[in-house]
Design a protein that fits this description.
The chain is α+β, with helices and mostly antiparallel strands. It folds into two domains: about 5-185, NADH Oxidase (3-Layer(aba) Sandwich); about 200-385, START domain (Alpha-D-Glucose-1,6-Bisphosphate, Chain A, domain 4). Helices cover about 35% and strands about 25% of the residues. It has ten helices and 14 strands. The longest helix is centred in the C-terminal third of the chain and has 33 residues, at about 355-385. Bound molecules: flavin mononucleotide. Flavin mononucleotide (FMN) binds near residues 95, 102, 154 and 156.
Amino acid sequence: MDIDADAVDAALTTTRAVRRRLDLDRPVADDVLLDCIDIAEQAPTGGNLGSRRWIVIRDPAKKAALAEFYRHGAGRWMTSAAERLAGSGHPMERNMASSAHLVEHLAEVPAIVIPTILGRHDGSGRPGLFDSVIQAAWSFCIALRARGLGTAWVTAALADDQAVKELLGIPADVTEIVMFPVAYTIGTDFERAPRHPAREITYFDGFARTFESGPNDPVMLADGPGAVAEIDIDAPPAAIWPVITDINMNAAFSDEFQGAEWVDDGPRGDRGVGASFVGTNFNSNFGEFKVPSFVDAYDEHVAYGWRTSDMDNPGARWRFELEPRPGGTRLRYTMKLGPGPSGLTMAIESMPDKEARIIARRITSQLASMQRTVEGVKEIVAARLEQGS
Ligand SMILES: Cc1cc2nc3c(=O)[nH]c(=O)nc-3n(C[C@H](O)[C@H](O)[C@H](O)COP(=O)(O)O)c2cc1C
């Protein structure tokens, strides 16, 4: 059997959270929903035990009650966030406007579908019950999309487990997973969403180890090896920005880096892209050494980066990225080695047969100090917020 990979990929990459483009006026037949559930039931299930149970809600009073739970759960917050962010250009503005729209219109959707699973999640953090239902729920979304329907993955309406159970007569030992407002979509053109590229979030042979190509076996510098440290901080990006753009901040957390001094402003006469500083480092193999560095990313409250040794042929590329998340910010700190010369390339040149081992050791030590750095940033930000500065 030939599978049309393009069609499958198109469905997988354009199945968006649809809220404002749900057609509230066009009826959805039960048969369509049942077909999609039959397809979803083909998803893998632990022990080959079919424990998923699906509830289709058509009753206007019950839909209205679920909409009310949603409004009480996160709906009020979503509506006020949408009002606050309207016209601000904030990365969450569109999402919040769309979420607020669904809060207002949930009761009007032709059908609400709730997949459940027999049993309660054990909360152990180990693979378990949820792993036998999430993939089926997502297959259901894809099957809808293939038929011109859409939905959104809504969980906030299920926050009051007791109320939902009472409304729908769900036994205590059954878990509701997600609530799908289902309708035909208004138009069927949906786009791919911006997401982290696979290379940035795929780790090879150990957590937080990235490669720009390959990796070859054995690993080479030409593979562009790198490392990632991340932390969630309960503060807005604006509170973190001054800390990560302080070129001396890392000195407190790095084994090697002692401090830095500005050398030149960038072409715009500021410390943005093109500005340069020189860092002083110390390590037991090389003693003290100076590393010229050049700011290569300055996107206020979003990304700050620099390259070492040479802007065009850097020894390493470093970057802080700030990603807003509910209640705070995710700080992502990345480092990519090469492609240009550095202390590392000198070490490799003197022991070419040990290239893979030299890289592995370098990454391991960098990872440790990068982790200390993001933890340190979090502490500095928390302390500043506490002092009200
Ligand atoms: C675990 C989870 C919970 C979610 N809860 C809600 C929700 O309560 N309300 C809602 O409108 N969207 C909810 N969503 C949908 C996300 O907001 C949506 O997937 C995200 O904004 C990305 O949009 P996209 O799916 O179109 O790429 C949830 C998604 C997931 C995975």
